[in-house]
Amino acid sequence: MSVLVYIDQADGHIKKSSFEAASYAAKVAGQTGTTAEAIVLGKVSDDLTSLGRYGISKVHHVADDQLNTMDSKLYTNAIVQAVESTGAEIVVLSHNVNGKAIAPRLSARLKAGMVPGAVSLPDTSAGFVVKKGVFSGKAFANISLQTSKKIISLTPNAFTPVQQEGTAEVVPFNATIVAPAVKVTATNKVKGEVPLSEAELVISGGRGLKGPENWGMIEELAHLLGAATACSRAVADAHWRPHHEHVGQTGGSIAPNLYFAVGISGAIQHLAGVNRSKVIVVINKDPEAPFFKAADYGIVGDAFEVMPKIIDAVKKLKGV
Amino acid sequence: MKILVCISKTPDTTAKIAFTENNTKFATDGVQWIINPYDEWYALVKAIELKEKDPSTVIHLITVGGADAEPIIRKALALGGDEAIRVNTDSSDSFTIASQIAAVAKEGGYDLVFTGKETIDYNGSAIGGMVAELLDLPYVSLATKFELNGTTATINREIEGGEEVAEAGLPLVISCQKGMAEQRIPNMKGIMGARTKPLKVVEPVQVEALTKIVSFELPPAKAGVKLVPADQPEELVRLLHEEAKLF
């Protein structure tokens, strides 16, 4: 019996959210008196022994080219084979784009109760209860898993990975792989930007910025801080910014350490996508903007006057 | 072409979120119910668009819920769709719900099953993947674009920092999000027509729930905003650096 964590990769590199999942899996293993092992699918360029630093004792690696793109059925089959071979009772994944496709399949296949989007370690004082966000960030639910096998998909940026000394043993894993039914024909990635879902710091703009030509200051501040950029629904609908930047109830839901909102009033639907952010900063010229009620820091002022000064102060701080 | 669109009833996006019975039940008093926006704006409208291109397409809607879900499914029928199926059971367990949908889908022989990417109340993103697994079908999640050429589908799917384009044959399960289609408002003809469209009620298949909601809780209240004067923005940068230690 062990805890098995699925390590998600893109272009041969382990995703940050998977290091979080690995560390979480090691903690759960500690709680339940067992060890945490990992499964990695596809060719990778990262050194997998480094997963030992996140508490993983053994890495099962299926280095098959067919697994370099994600087909939820193939991935599920491979992970199920690893579950059977390791005897794992608990499977941990990141609740990222791929985790959202794989975790429910695993749950249905293994008849294993699942917590999609966990935000806490399991409470094992009475059964096995894990907290998750519900009502689009407006509440939490404590979910009891009533099956012997359990699936936990962990909300990105909800759990800070703990690093320690350690080297994981990497062993090849021979999973039976059939031809994928879903063939990836193209990948369109925005180069050189921090993916929004993985970003720790997010700078976001709303209709208050008046037009796409004024996004330079959002991008400059984001660049200085290594932050991702986001926007409100109105901005995405007006095609000022690409749709994948839209955060809110019907766009992406994010939980960065910093959400820095410029010219966004903070309608309840927008808040639903960002209210799990650890610190919210609001710059808005309207003192009645509802966003100030959800904010930690704020400036009531004109973004066009305030933002250049903020950028200067950050430049001074960073010595650039 | 036969499409099954999964429809869920959720509280309105502006509904007040509160709990009763010692924080074990969602307080439904005064709550307006809507079609889950991802199911309505993206899954259902996309299915309607496919029918507009190929009028021989048949669209069935399915909801799993009690009789109180009927106004929602009628509203969905007013937008489009040929008939609806309500599986007469209430559950908060994703596997129970997915098993009901899979049982109906197996009978119906659908080429496509569309779901929203998640519901705005449970935020599970679970139903599509579970239905696909129960039917042993390919599943493409978080789709932002879907085109059909004969029996081959081309799907754009969200990935971290961009999109991936994939091809797959039918039958297929897809979870839909922004980009798939644009929100529509039902017209009078649709609303009148929806009243007479068939709404079949079927009894659930027996399934053991895998999960149970023990309790709900609200996030801790914010301490209140610390306002920095507009003429001292550098003070905000100092606070974020020294107090919040964000960079």
TrEMBL record, chain A:
Q: List the cofactors.
A: FAD
Specify the superkingdom: Bacteria
Q: Which UniProt keywords apply?
A: Electron transport, FAD, Flavoprotein, Transport
Asked if the record carries the keyword NADP, the reply is no
What terms describe the molecular function in GO for this protein? Answer: electron transfer activity; flavin adenine dinucleotide binding
Entry keyword Transport: yes
Q: How is the cofactor bound?
A: Binds 1 FAD per dimer.
The record ties this protein, via PANTHER family, to: ELECTRON TRANSFER FLAVOPROTEIN ALPHA (PTHR43153), ELECTRON TRANSFER FLAVOPROTEIN SUBUNIT ALPHA, MITOCHONDRIAL (PTHR43153:SF1)
Protein name in the entry:
Electron transfer flavoprotein subunit alpha
InterPro entries the UniProt entry points to: DHS-like_NAD/FAD-binding_dom (IPR029035), ETF_a/b_N (IPR014730), ETF_a/FixB (IPR001308), ETF_asu_C (IPR014731), Rossmann-like_a/b/a_fold (IPR014729)
Q: Name one GO biological process term.
A: fatty acid beta-oxidation using acyl-CoA dehydrogenase
So where does FAD get bound?
Answer: 207, 232-233, 263-270, 284
Q: Which family does it belong to?
A: Belongs to the ETF alpha-subunit/FixB family.
Q: Domain Electron transfer flavoprotein alpha/beta-subunit N-terminal spans what residues? A: 3-194
TrEMBL record, chain B:
Pinpoint the Electron transfer flavoprotein alpha/beta-subunit N-terminal domain residues: 23-211
UniProt name for this protein: Electron transfer flavoprotein subunit beta
Point out the coiled-coil segments of this chain.
Answer: none
* GO MF: electron transfer activity
Q: Which GO terms describe its cellular component?
A: cytosol
Please report the organism this UniProt entry assigns to the protein: Flavihumibacter solisilvae
What domain of life is recorded for the organism? Bacteria
SMART domains linked: ETF
- Hey, which family's this protein in? Belongs to the ETF beta-subunit/FixA family.
Keywords tagged on the record: Electron transport, Transport
